[in-house]
Amino acid sequence: MLRIDNLRKRYRTGDEALKGISFAVPSGQIVGLIGPSGAGKSTLIRCVNRLVEPTGGQVFLDDLELTALSRSELRKARRRIGMIFQEFALVERLTVMENVLSGRLGYVPFWRSFARRYPPADVDKAFALLERVGVLDQADKRADALSGGQRQRVGVARALEQDPELLLIDEPTASLDPKTSRQIMRLIREICAERNLPAIINIHDVLLAQDFVDRIVGLRAGEVVFDGPPNALSPEVLTRIYGEEDWAALQRRPDRETDEERGAREAVDGELERRASFA
Amino acid sequence: MANSNAAPALPETNKNVTAAARAWRRPPLIRNRALRWTCGAGVVVYLTLAIASLQVNWVRIYQGLERGWRFVQGFLLPDFVSRWSDIVIGMRESLTMTVTSTVIGILISVPIGIGAARNLAPRPVYLLCRGVIALSRSLQEIIIAILFVAMFGFGPFAGFLTLSFATIGFLSKLLAEDIEDADESQAEAIRATGAGWWQLINYAIQPQVMPRLIGLSCYRLDINFRESAVIGIVGAGGIGATLNTTMDRYEYDSAGAILILIIAVVMAAEYFSGYVRKWVQ
Amino acid sequence: MPIASSADKLVWRYRTPHQRFALWAGWLALITLFVFCWQVMTKDTIWSFVWDAPQQAADIGDRMIPPAFSYFPELIEPLWDTINIATLGTLIAIVIAVPLAFLAARNTTPSTRTVRPLALLLIVASRSINSLIWGLLLVTIIGPGVFAGVIAIALRSIGFIAKLLYEAIEEIDESQVDAVTATGASSLQVLDQAIVPQVMPAFAGISVFRWDINIRESTVLGLVGAGGLGLKLQASLNTLAWNQVTAILLVIFAAVAISEWISARVRHAVI
C-alpha cells in the first residue's frame, strides 16, 4: 500500500513541478496517471523511489517513510519497488538474461553481480518470468537485438524479478505500436492481478487508460484535478485536465454505433494490426 | 525483511519448467572454445616473452631515483630566471612555427582533401592525393624533421616545413572522410538546379564539413604546438632544443620550468579551441 | 538579422553589416598574425640553404637508394623491442587511465570540486608532453634501454586514453543508469552493470587506436636512447649511412602499415 502525502517538488530555477499531491493506492489497485505534458506525471513517479528528490511532503510504503531514509536504507527500499520505463531503459549491450537478473542487484553483493554468479533461485525465477512474458527464446540475445515490444516485456520481467510490492510504470506504451501497446497493458494488468500488486501507470493514451486501469488520477500543472473511476471521464473532466478539445470524437460510444460504423472500425483495427506485423 | 519471497502460482505456464535444474552463465566473449583457449594462451606466451626481454637494471634505476627526485623538485620549484633568454627564444620559435605551419597546412590540406574524396574527384586526382596523404601519415614527424634539416639546414624553417607536411596527412585524410560521409541528398538537390562544380562545393559540401573542419584545425593547432616542442631535439627549432640542453646540463629546475610552460600553453590552447568550437555551433 | 526593411521593402543580405565587419576584422587579424609570425620565424633563416635544398635532396636521395638489404637481419631484434615498447606501454597506460577516466567524468566522479579538477590536470599534463620528451626525461633518470621506452609510452598514452574515455563516459544513456539504480543497486553495481557495458566499444576502439599510434612513436624513441629501431636509426644517421637509413625506414613503414590495418579492423568490428 502506497501513501503520498502533500508531495512537493520545486526546482532550483523556481519551477514548481508538484504542488502538494496527496493520494493513496491500496494493494492490487492499478492507478492510471493522466495529464498534459509538463503536468508533473514523470516527476511524481520518480519522486516515489527518489530518483528525483522531493522538496516537501512524504511518501509511505506500508509503514516505511521513503522520504526519510538514508542512502543505504533507500537502496534496500528500492528493491521493493519495481520500475518500468518509457524507452525500456534496458542495458543494450547486455543480454536479456543479464538485464532480467539485474533486478536482483539490490539483493546480491557486488562480487556476485560482477562475476554473474547469481543464486540458483534467482536464475530460476528469471527463466520463469521470461516465459511468463513470452520472450524465453531470446534469453541469450543482446537487448538491442529485440523489437520494441519484446524489450518492454523484458523490462516488465526485470521489474518483477525484484519481487516488488509496488510497480511504478512510466509511459510503457509511448514507443510501441497500437497492437503491442494493448498487449503490454494486458500483460501488466494480468500480472498485477496475479500478485495483488498496486501500480501507478503514467499514461498519455486516454483510451488505453480507460480500458485497463481501475482508477484514474488526473494531473494538471502539478495538482490533482481528478480522482475517480475510468468511466467518470466525461468531456468536462477531460477539459479540466487537458484543456479544450473535441473530446467527443476521442470517446467511443458502442451503444450509438451502427453496424456500418462498427464494421468500419473493425476494418481499421485490422489494418493497423496487419501493418504492425510488417513493422 | 518484511517482504515475502514466495512467488505466486503462474497460471500461464504450460511448459514443464524443472525448478533447480537450470544453470546460467554469461555467454563468453569468444564463443568458440578452442579459439578462446588459443587466444588466451597466445596472450600469456607473448606477455612472458615480452616482459622477459625488458632487461631491467634495477641497480641503475635505484641510483637514478635520486636524480628523478631532483627532477621532481625542479618541477615543483621551477627556475624561470637563469635560462630565461634561451627559453624566450625557444618558445618564440615554437609558437611562430605552430601558427605558420597550421595556417599553411590548412591552406594546402583543403584542396588535397577535396581531391582525395571519392565522390568529388576524378580517379587520377583521387589516387594522387591519397598517395600524398599516405606518405605524410606513414612517416613520423621526427623522421620528416631529420630529412628536412638535412635538406634545408638547422632552424625553425625546417620545423615549419615538417609540421606543414605532417598537417597535410592529418587534415586532408579527415576532411576527405568527412566529405565522403556527407549527405548525398543535399548534393543531389544542388546538382539538380544545374549548379557548376565549384557552386556544388560551396553550397552542398562546405556547410556540412565546415564545423568539423574548424574543430579539427583547432585540434591540429594543439598537436602542432606539442610537436614543435619536440622536433628541436633534432635541430628543427623550437623549445625542444632548449629542453634538451637543460637536461644535458642537469639543470632540472630550468627543465621543469620549460615543461610547465608547455603544459600551460597546451591548456590555454584547449580552452581557446573549446571556445571557438562552441562559437561555430 | 540578414532580413531588414529598407524604404518599405524587405531586403535580404547574406550577412548583416555587423557580421561582415566582424568577419573582415577577423581575417585581417589572422593575416597580420601570420605575417608577424613568419617574419619572426625566418629572421635567422639562411636562405641560401633553402634554395640549395633540391640539390641536397637529390644528393641524399642518390645515397639512399638502393637500400642496404644486407642490413635487414640486424633489424629484427630492434623491431621486436619496438613492438614490445608499444604493447607493454599501452597495457600499463590502460591500467592507469581507466580509473583516472572514471574520476574525471562528470557523472562518475566522487567529487566535482576536488577530485575531478585534479584528474583533469593529470590528464592534461600527460597529454601535453610528447612521448619523445618523456623518453628524454626517463633516459636521464633510469638509464637508456627498452624499459625507459615502455614507461615513456605509458606516460604519454595515459592522457590520450583517459581523455577520450571520460568523454565517452559523459555521453552515455542516463536512462539505463536510472533503471539499474531503481532496482536498489549500489554505485559499484551500477558502474558494472549500466556504465561499463555502454563504454566498452569506445574503450576497445580507443585502446587499439592508441596502440597503433604508439607503434609509430616507439620506432623513433631510440633517437633519445630508449630502445627499439630508433637506436639503429640514430647510429646510421651518425655515420651518414643513408642506405641503411632507407632500410630502417622501410621496416618502420611496414610495421606501421600492419598495425594500422589491425587497428582499423578491430575498430570496425567493435562498433
Summarize the SSE layout with pairings.
The complex is a heterotrimer of chains A (279), B (281) and C (271).
Chain A: E1 2-10, E2 16-25, E3 30-34, H1 41-48, E4 56-61, E5 64-65, H2 71-78, E6 81-84, H3 96-101, H4 110-115, H5 120-133, H6 148-161, E7 166-170, H7 178-195, E8 199-202, H8 206-212, E9 215-220, E10 223-228, H9 235-242, H10 247-250, H11 259-278
Helix pairs in contact in A: 5-6, 6-7
Chain B: H1 33-52, H2 58-76, H3 84-115, H4 123-138, H5 141-152, H6 156-181, H7 184-192, H8 197-228, H9 239-248, H10 252-280
Chain C: E1 3-6, E2 9-12, H1 17-41, H2 47-64, H3 76-104, H4 115-128, H5 131-142, H6 146-170, H7 174-182, H8 187-221, H9 229-238, H10 242-270
Antiparallel strand pairs in C: 1-2
Short description:
The complex is a heterotrimer of chains A (279), B (281) and C (271). By secondary structure, chain B is mostly helical.
Give a written overview of the molecule.
The complex is a heterotrimer of chains A (279), B (281) and C (271). Chain A is α/β, with parallel strands linked by helices and 279 residues long. Helix content of chain A is 41%, strand content 20%. Chain A has 11 helices and 10 strands. Chain A has helices spanning 41-48, 71-78, 96-101, 110-115, 120-133, 148-161, 178-195, 206-212, 235-242, 247-250, 259-278; strands at 2-10, 16-25, 30-34, 56-61, 64-65, 81-84, 166-170, 199-202, 215-220, 223-228. In chain A, a hairpin with a 2-residue loop joins strand 9 (215-220) and strand 10 (223-228). In chain A, helix 5 runs antiparallel to helix 6 (148-161). Chain B is 73% helix and 0% strand. With 281 residues, chain B is mainly α. Mean pLDDT of chain B is 84; it is low at 1-21. Chain C has 271 residues and is mostly helical. Chain C has 2 domains: 3-47; 74-270, Orthogonal Bundle (MetI-like fold), CATH 1.10.3720.10. Chain C is 76% helix and 3% strand. Chain C has 10 helices and 2 strands; from the N terminus they run E-E-H-H-H-H-H-H-H-H-H-H. In chain C, strands 1-2 form a two-stranded antiparallel ribbon. Chains in contact: A-B, A-C, B-C. The interface between A and B is medium-sized, with 23 and 21 residues.
Q: Characteristics of this structure?
A:
heterotrimer; B: 281 residues; mainly alpha; MetI-like fold; 2 domains; 10 helices; globular; disordered N terminus; C: 271 residues; two-stranded antiparallel ribbon; 3% strand; flat
